[in-house]
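Weekly sync, protein design subgroup
Attendees: M.S., D.O., the rotation student, P.L. (late)

Item 1: inverse folding check
M.S. brought a backbone from last month's batch and wanted to see whether the design step gives back something sensible before we order anything. D.O. pointed out we never logged the input encoding, so this time it goes straight into the notes. Structure tokens as presented (443 positions):
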């Protein structure tokens, strides 16, 4: 029985890019020095690629910080790495396409497999490299500011929990440029997703960039009147999305020379989607911000587009659902986040220029709900005005899908995990920078 580890998940975030290769099993030479050891050969690989997640208090299910941690997992590591399941990277593209790709080199794979095959020896303690130092509770380093829900939310043991909204004042007295945003659920098992919005009276005027397909953007209401427990508050300043969290998602870290700009006096609005786990638990999610201090930063904005009209017939194993946006001005796209629920199985994004030229810019043939990424382009996409970005998501609503909550039901767009979504998040920068808003703010 294969053990699913989540090995190396999100572990090399913005720290390096790894070569994709599939290595055959390496047979060590007759000399003792040819046999890999933990201290000399394996620990450096794990420290570089894995321990930012595989450490106490992080998303991975076990720590890989010490030999005592790693040795009991040796065979599972061999299976996961050897079969290509881990690190959990799902995009298909040439090496170097993505800034945050999670791939071991052929040499690293061979070293891990040979180490396990030779009994997973410890090695000479003198060869042990220094363990990496991490900020407790964060993968973006120590935040400059942390904002936390003001009280615990009690998640029931069972039933349906509709979206809840929580508001946290920032008390910013001046604009803040944010280099990194990380959402930390207080109870990962119960938090399905978090969308973080920023509400403030704009002191900058931002020109429109994305024009969604109006027919696809309609989301049907599946709730009875009054069913939502905590609707968004009325009478607050305008909101814009700035960050998100879903299972396995990487924190939003802006590319060099860019940042998100937050106006003074704003409020963080957390849209929380909870999923009962079988026992009553509590959650108090928090958001950490790292501020940028460099001059002349380019503003990054977050956007999204959807197809809320999807329908997946009962038993259908390969249903394609498309969504589309048009760029109404030149823009730079830094990253793309595909999101479906348990029936989603693959994604493809095609850019169509005004002259009809089509290019596949992102192909995710092995989508996994448990590991959702912002795929950040090493060379950001330069999108001309008038171009269309089309997403296609494929779904398996058949009994062959082991994760399918109910293959006998037709499935539509819905908030809950047993329903479905066709959602794409974008990180982009328009060519036209923001300008000071007219007196009194933007209407």
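Designed sequence read out in the meeting:
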């Amino acid at each position: 029985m294969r053990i699913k580890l989540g090995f190396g998940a999100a572990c090399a975030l913005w720290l390096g890019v790894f070569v994709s290769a599939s290595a055959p099993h390496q047979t060590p030479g007759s000399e003792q020095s040819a046999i890999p050891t933990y201290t000399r050969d394996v620990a450096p690989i794990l420290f570089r690629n894995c321990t930012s997640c595989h450490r106490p208090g992080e998303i991975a299910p076990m720590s890989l910080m010490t030999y005592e941690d790693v040795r009991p997992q040796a065979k599972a590591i061999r299976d996961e790495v050897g079969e290509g399941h881990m690190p959990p990277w799902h995009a298909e593209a040439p090496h170097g396409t993505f800034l945050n790709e999670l791939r071991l080199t052929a040499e690293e794979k061979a070293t891990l497999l040979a180490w396990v095959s030779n009994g997973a020896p410890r090695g000479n303690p003198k060869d042990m490299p220094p363990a990496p130092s991490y900020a407790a509770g964060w993968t973006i380093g120590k935040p400059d500011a942390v904002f936390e829900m003001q009280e615990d939310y009690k998640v029931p043991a069972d039933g349906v929990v509709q979206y809840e909204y929580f508001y946290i004042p920032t008390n910013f007295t001046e604009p803040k440029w944010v280099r990194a945003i990380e959402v930390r659920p207080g109870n990962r098992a119960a938090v399905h997703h978090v969308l973080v919005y920023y509400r403030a009276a704009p002191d900058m005027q931002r020109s429109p960039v994305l024009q969604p397909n109006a027919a696809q953007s309609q989301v049907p209401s599946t709730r009875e009147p009054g069913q939502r427990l905590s609707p968004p508050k009325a009478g607050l300043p305008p909101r814009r999305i700035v960050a998100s969290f879903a299972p396995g998602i990487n924190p939003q870290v802006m590319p060099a020379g860019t940042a998100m700009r937050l106006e003074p006096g704003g409020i963080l609005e957390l849209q929380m989607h909870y999923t009962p786990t079988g026992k009553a638990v509590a959650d108090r999610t928090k958001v950490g911000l790292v501020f940028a201090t460099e001059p002349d930063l380019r503003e990054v904005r977050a956007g999204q587009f959807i197809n809320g009209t999807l329908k997946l017939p009962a038993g259908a194993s390969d249903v394609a659902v498309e969504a589309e946006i048009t760029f109404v001005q030149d823009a730079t796209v830094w990253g793309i986040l595909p999101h479906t629920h348990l029936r989603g199985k693959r994604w493809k994004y095609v850019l169509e220029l005004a002259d009809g030229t089509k290019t596949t810019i992102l192909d995710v043939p092995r989508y996994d709900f448990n590991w959702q990424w912002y795929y950040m382009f090493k060379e950001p996409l330069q999108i001309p005005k008038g171009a269309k970005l089309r997403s296609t998501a494929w779904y398996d609503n058949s009994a062959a899908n082991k994760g399918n909550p109910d293959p006998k039901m037709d499935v539509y767009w819905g908030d809950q995990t047993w329903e479905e979504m066709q959602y794409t998040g974008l990180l982009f920068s328009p060519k036209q920078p923001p300008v000071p808003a007219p007196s009194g703010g933007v209407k």
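Discussion: Residues 1-31, 224-228 have pLDDT under 50 and may be disordered. The helical segments are 38-49, 67-70, 74-82, 106-117.
Action: P.L. to compare against the previous round before Friday.
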